[in-house]
Structures are given as structure tokens and as C-alpha cells.
Amino acid sequence: MRLAYLTLEGSREGQASYVHVHEIIKGLRRNGWDVKLFEPYYAGVDKPGLAVRLWKFLAVQVSMAWSFLKNGKPDVLYVRSHPFSWPSVMLAKALGVVVVSEVNGPYEDLFLAWPFTRRFSWMFVWLWRSQWRHSDALVTVTKGLVDWLKSQSVNELVFLIPNGADTEFFSPSAVVNPSAFSDFLPRFYAVFFGALARWQGVDTMLEAVKSPYWPQEVSLLVAGEGVEGHKVKMASQVYQRVLYLGRVSYRDIPGLVAGAVVSLCVKTRDAALVSTGLSPIKLFESLACGTPMIVSDISGQADLIREGDCGLVIPPEDPDALAKAVAYIYENPSERDRMSRAGRLLIETKHSWAIRADDTHRIIMMLLKKS
After folding, report:
1. What is the Cα–Cα distance from 204 to 270, expressed in whole angstroms?
2. How far is it, in rounded angstroms, from Cα 203 to Cα 313?
3. 31-54 core/surface letters (b: 16 or more CB in 10 A; e: else)
4. CA distance 265 to 273
5. Virtual torsion, Cα 291, 292, 296, 299, nearest 10 deg
6. Which of 182, 184, 193, 198 lies at a 20 to 30 A Cα distance from 256?
7. Residue 44's pLDDT band (boundaries 50, 70, 90)?
């Protein structure tokens, strides 16, 4: 069985999109699929310009089309949905290939990330809707996105496949890389790792550290880069309790998370996020490490924590509530241990990448039988 996997979102190891793509591919191969990945490569450029991106979008799809002509069409085209993947979806349908489109956010995500695109919203919305209408099925990562896609009336088959975690790589037994961090890591710390985007709640975390409710023995450790990174860097120069690591190698993340008192995912009350929910990969990875979570009360991520009773849910953008939650988990080690075991068990039994890939395989096989 042959599957072509197309993603126009060029990513590097450690990014959420990279993890999602490669974990699903690994699981599909385990299920017997011959998978060929088609993605743009930016030769080490962190932030390619628009012209470079557009050229790469075209080049990778031409390469895929040439592969179809040279090696024969695949059984399935799996697309990480993007407005400019339209030609590939249309080509696949013309060739009689089963198409599965993975949708990771509503239209608004594009307009927030690239504000100029809002002027051409009619075009981008049409490109997306046309692809989804011509797909054999849609898959997405939150219940909110399932409901939103159904409300768009573009496809009757919409499946929920949330994110997951590699339960071998992210484990309670993961240890800190001694050559990189052991000399200055505090004994007790709350950890945030990931892209420091505007909706990640950086202001909330930094204000919480200054709250009288934040436990004095606990530091805030932040690993990642992004537009909000300068705020964390400045705070680390003023407050000894704040540690900013910048970009950290992906292989070093499990040890940092497993050694934390608690992991934070306190995203802001952004309208686009709230309406369709969230399924952050860091949530699953932290729980797989046996680290309790504190999350903001947004559907998807809050539902998971409540399902497993493996952390605390707080109102978005509430620094005092965050500080009190950190204090509760730190000051109650028996409860912290219980949350740790519950979180690990939840991921092992219901939310590993292996389970996600098996679900994807079953959906694809069902579509092939129908075609």
C-alpha cells in the first residue's frame, strides 16, 4: 500500500508540526504502508520570506506530481491541509486517488499569523473549502474543530484524531542532560516549553511569578523561542526565579519536563482558539513524562486534564490563579504523585502516537474499501 504525505509547512525537529507529521508516518509504516513524504526544504533558513515560501510550495508539488508520473499513482494522498495544496488535491482526485485532508485550525489561524491575507480571505477560504469538498474524508485534532468543519457543510466524513505523545521518548524516567543543564537547574521548577507566540500566555506566567501566591522555592523555567522571547529574557535579568533557556534541542526536552514540579500550558482567551479548542502536543508529552499540568480553561486541553484528573484547570489570563495552582501542586507532594501516575496512565492507554497512527490507518482502510 502506497501513501503520499504532503505538508507545505516546512518544519524542523522539535516543532509540533514536525512531531505530528513524523509520528503519524512512523505509525503508518508500522501498519504496512509505503509512505513518501513531500515537504518544502528551506536549507536552514528559520523564517523564509513569502516569495521563497511560494516558490517552495510550487516546487514540492511539482516534484510530487512528477513522482506520480514516474513511479505510478499512490493509493492515498494524505494532506496536511493548506490553501496552496489545492493543485495536488485536484490532481489526486483526477487520478482516482483517495484523499484525506488533515485540518489543524479554522480560517482565522491564517489571518492571525499573516494579517495581510485577510484582504484576500475570499480566495483562501475558497481554496480550503474546495479541497475539503473534494477530499474523501477530513481528520482534525479537537472536538471543536470537528463541529466547526461540519458547520461548513463541505464534507460529511469528519474524524477526530487528537495529538499524542511518544511514550518511550517522553517518560518519567527521562533524565536531564548533565552536560547542558545540571550546573544551574533549580531543584524545584515549573516548566514551559514551545514556541513563544502571543497566545501562549507569557504575560500570565511572568506576572504569576511576581504574585504573592507563587511559592518562593519554585522557579519558572522557559525553553523556546518566538516573538515573546524578549519578555522572558528581560524578566530573567530582573527576577532570579525566572530562567530562560532559549531554544533547546528536542532530545533534551523530556529530561527537563520529567524533572519539573509542573508543566504549564496557559494559553490566552483568543477567540479563534476558544471557538475550536486546543490539542497542544506539549500537553500529551508532559503527561507522558508523569508531570502534572496546569492549563487554561479552553476546550480540548481542559477536557483532557479533567478526563485524567492529572492537573489543574484555571481561568485564562489569571496570574494569581496560576500562582495558586503552582503552589497547590508543589505543597502537596502526595497529590502531585497521584496526578503524575494518572497522567502517565492516560497517555499510555488512550493517547500515544501509536494509537493515533492506528486510528489513522483504520480510517484510510475504510475509505479504500468504499472507493
Report:
1. 14
2. 18
3. bebebeebbbeeeeeeeeeeeebe
4. 13
5. 90
6. 198
7. low
Strands 137-140 and 98-103: parallel
Residue 175, all three cell numbers = 533524565
Q: What pTM value is reported for the model?
A: 0.89
Q: In what order do the strands lie in the sheet with 2-7?
A: 34-38, 2-7, 76-80, 98-103, 137-140, 158-160
User: How far is the C-alpha of 110 from the C-alpha of 274, rounded, in Å?
Assistant: 16
Task: Say what the pLDDT of residue 324 is.
Answer: 98
The answer to whether 223 touches 251, Cβ cutoff 8 Å, is no
Q: Do 169 and 230 form a contact (C-beta atoms < 8 A)?
A: no
Instruction: Name the DSSP letter for residue 172.
Output: T
Residue 189 phi, psi (nearest 5): -155, 150
- Beta strands in the chain, from DSSP E residues, in sequence order: 2-7, 34-38, 76-80, 98-103, 137-140, 158-160, 189-193, 219-223, 242-246, 262-265, 293-296, 311-314
Residue for cell digits 480560517? 107
Determine the straight-line distance between the first and last CA of the chain, rounded to whole angstroms: 15
Burial class (CB in 10 A: 0-12, 13-18, 19+), 281: buried
pLDDT per position as a tens digit, 120-172 = 999 999 999 999 999 999 999 999 999 999 999 999 999 999 999 999 999 99
- What number of other Cβ atoms are within 10 A of residue 145's Cβ? 25
Over residues 242-275, the pLDDT tens digits come to 999 999 989 999 999 999 999 999 999 874 455 6
C-alpha to C-alpha distance for 281 and 20, rounded to whole angstroms: 8
3-state helix, strand, coil split of the chain in percent (to 5) is 50, 15, 35
Alpha carbon dihedral 368, 149, 22, 348, in 10-degree steps, equals -90
The order of strands in the sheet holding 311-314 is 242-246, 219-223, 189-193, 262-265, 293-296, 311-314
